[in-house]
Amino acid sequence: MARIPNERDGAIVGRLRMAREAARLSTRDVEERLRRQGIKVSHATIGNYERGLTQPSEKILGLLAGIYKRELDWLLGTGLLLQGIRYRALKSVSVHEKKDFKLRAQAWLDAYFYIEGILKCKLENRHPNFKVKNDTSGRQLAEKIRSMYKIHDYPVTSAIRIMEHFGIYVIEIGTSARIDACAGLMGNSRIVVLNESLPNDRIRLTALHELAHHLYRDCINGPGLLSEDVEKRAFEFASHMLLPETQLEIVMRLKSMVQLVQYKERFGISLAAMIYRARKSDLIPPNLYKRLWRDFGRLGFRKNEPGHVAADRPLRMEALLDAAVSDGKIAFATIAQLAGTDESIVEERIFRAIGGREQKPRVLDFEAYNRKFRNN
């Protein structure tokens, strides 16, 4: 008869499988590596550990942590697991890349919630009674929130700030996979994880796209629409949040690339998103739309658009970490352990959050510098 796992076992069960899959090991691979260390555990038993049917000993857990290159405390963690995930990614992204993204997101979120607990400052949802009907269009939802914030036709100063006002935890992580973001849940907490390599305009659109998924409760029970319709609705919301229809109509009247760039910089939305929206709204004819896209390709704008958009990045976790370290309540090493990374990476997150663009030097070797100076 199967044993019913307790709360602690539940955390171990989820993390065991996540860690193995992130390490790209099969249960037979793990069986072989344990055998080399003098431990006989079948691949079937390892699978039972991951399903909660059998409980591993502390010794086995320690060995598995070593094989998966994770801290034992992480495997033993009682925190909630990231679930109900919706990825914003290309179809070419592999299952392994998604699992790796999820694992690293989970680790940083564990660290984020730990810091919150130390400082006793849980993110507050300022709009707990905000409801959205499933038949509300993306444009209608955007207009409702713009009206609520009294933005009217003005630019959204910070998409990230609005998301956090709705009690949504937003972080960035690095990835080489072509994943823009994901939205998910950790218990009752709503989560958005962004790819830190995205340019500023795309970050804003992507963040609001993920906000739509949470407001429509797409991560909980699904909206009853086809996946393609769900994504179109989220894009409609995000683009209308950044640029209301009245302003799009104004900028499209002159059909001037100079004015498009000015609006991009003012409203923080990409040229590509404006042109796509304009065609969908019949503000420009098909032939002009095709010509603009040809010009984009010829000028190299598809990969590197002109116009500067100010940074709008999630930094709440970094701000809390900085405060906790400054007050002596936590060490970088503790967060590094929770996040499954090196201490220098944690320090670098703080350095970049205050405006640094290059890796912070750990030690300045004056002797080496003087030798190089003398030799030159």
Q: Mind explaining what this structure looks like?
A:
The chain is α+β, with helices and mostly antiparallel strands. The protein is about 55% helix and about 5% strand. It contains 18 helices and 4 strands. A 4-stranded mixed beta sheet has the order 1-3-4-2, with helices on both faces. The longest helix has 25 residues, at about 95-120. The protein starts with 6 loop residues before the first helix and ends with a helix.
Short description, anyone?
This protein folds into three domains: 1-78, Orthogonal Bundle (434 Repressor (Amino-terminal Domain)), CATH 1.10.260; 82-241 and 311-376, no CATH class; 243-310, no CATH class. Helices cover 56% and strands 7% of the residues. It has 18 helices and four strands.
List its traits.
376 residues, alpha+beta, 434 Repressor (Amino-terminal Domain), four-stranded mixed beta sheet, 18 helices, 56% helix, 7% strand, disordered N terminus, disordered C terminus
